[in-house]
Design brief:
Structural class: alpha/beta
CATH class of the largest domain: Alpha Beta
CATH topology of the largest domain: Rossmann fold
Low-confidence stretches: none
CATH superfamily of the largest domain: Glycogen Phosphorylase B
CATH architecture of the largest domain: 3-Layer(aba) Sandwich
Helix content: 40-55%
Strand content: 5-15%
Mean pLDDT: 90
Largest sheet: 7 strands, parallel
Number of strands: 13
Length: about 375
């Protein structure tokens, strides 16, 4: 890559929970590009491999997420002011500002207009209200995107939809949600415990890795596998509702094995043991993201499973149906009845060797070095 002074990456929230951000950091490190990563997590949570890199510099900023009115006022007047000043100071020695989420852009506001700005969107967004319960007073995200140096999204369908919604002068660049490295580094103790459990498993493992909530159809897969002696359902992740939902799930379905939560990239070691990977997405409308966001999902899980030759089963949404059918790397259940799920399981089981090879080919098709280089250099 052409030499750059430095790139400033801004992620408001926990960037360690976003594999595409970790992939970007690894990409820049590998190509010898210095970066300031500005985010809101504590310094002691930063992995050693990041801290030890001469190309990585971390700057923590405050961001109060409390729902209390007083706390939100503090956030508005103090936290955001400090975040913007930190970005200004970093940009004195950077030649590119890279925001990783819509929220990051909202927090920076008009400041993004002062710099060569790469605006990465993890989700498909039609409108972004200042206040989520109001249908007026939308944020100026479309204007920031129109004036950005580059808009980056993870999927071709999303690129064209985003361009149409926001009247963008160019189709956004596609940066797939693909892991840059499959090296998990030094594994934490809880991951080693989970690995020992998987090593002893004799049944074929259906693995779900991600956010654990009702919209992910975990119960439907558990129902389909009830009474099976050949297959077992393992789940990895945590629930936004806390441990209560997970405990209820385990009590109701004894055939679910829970492996806990494992931060990226350590969780990749667990995926190696999967026979089939699960990618369920239910199209739902949220306060910030339209129903098309799930219909045209671009999950990093497709790449994580395919990296290890693990065929997939998902729900019947276009974002999964197209790559599954085009590359023969998975099957979409027509509905989530036990019969439909089992039909998919049986198909993948019968064609597993062929689909596993296809998964490896699918993973290798995208050159992340070249894509990021083209984004940076134009």
């Amino acid at each position: 890559m052409r030499e750059h002074k430095k790139i400033t990456i801004v992620h408001i929230g926990d960037f360690l929970m976003y594999p595409p951000v970790i992939s970007l950091i690894q990409n820049l490190m590998h190509n010898g590009i210095k970066m300031d990563v500005i985010s809101t997590i504590d310094v002691d949570r930063i992995p050693e491999w990041m801290k030890e890199s001469k190309y990585f510099n971390y700057q923590k900023v405050p961001f109060n997420t409390s729902s209390r009115l007083k706390s939100r006022i503090i956030q508005a007047f103090f936290d955001i002011k400090q975040i913007r000043q930190t970005v200004k100071d970093s940009m004195l020695t950077s030649d590119l500002l890279w925001t990783t989420t819509d929220i990051s852009v909202k927090v920076l506001g008009d400041l993004v207009l002062d710099y060569k700005h790469v605006m990465q969107l993890m989700e498909l967004i039609q409108r972004f209200p200042h206040f989520t319960k109001m249908k007026i007073l939308d944020h100026r995200l479309p204007e920031y995107a129109q004036k950005a140096y580059k808009v980056v999204v993870p999927d071709l369908d999303r690129a064209y939809i985003q361009q149409a919604w926001w009247t963008l002068p160019e189709v956004p660049t596609i940066l797939p949600n693909k892991p840059y490295s499959l090296n998990s580094g030094e594994l934490p103790a809880e991951t080693l415990v989970a690995l020992k459990k998987l090593e002893k498993e004799t049944r074929k493992i259906l693995l779900y890795s991600g956010v654990i909530m009702p919209e992910r159809n975990i119960e439907d897969f558990a129902k389909a596998l009830e009474g099976s002696e050949d297959f077992v359902l393992y789940i990895i992740g945590r629930s936004p509702s806390g441990v209560g939902y997970i405990e209820k799930l385990l009590q109701q379905y004894p055939n679910i094995e829970y492996l806990g939560y494992h931060t990226a990239p350590a969780h990749l070691e667990l995926i190696k043991y999967a026979y089939i990977g699960l990618t369920p997405y239910v199209p739902t409308q949220s306060k910030l993201h339209p129903v098309l966001n799930a219909l045209y999902c671009a999950p990093n899980k497709i790449y994580e499973y395919s990296a290890f030759g693990v065929p997939m089963i998902g729900t019947n949404v276009l974002g999964l149906l197209r790559p599954f059918e085009r590359y023969n790397i998975g099957r979409c259940a027509k509905d989530m009845t036990p019969e439909s799920v089992l039909e998919c399981v049986e198909y993948v089981d019968e064609h597993h060797d062929e689909m596993s090879k296809n998964c490896l080919k699918f993973f290798e098709k995208d050159n992340l070095d070249k894509i990021v280089q083209d984004i940076i250099e134009g």
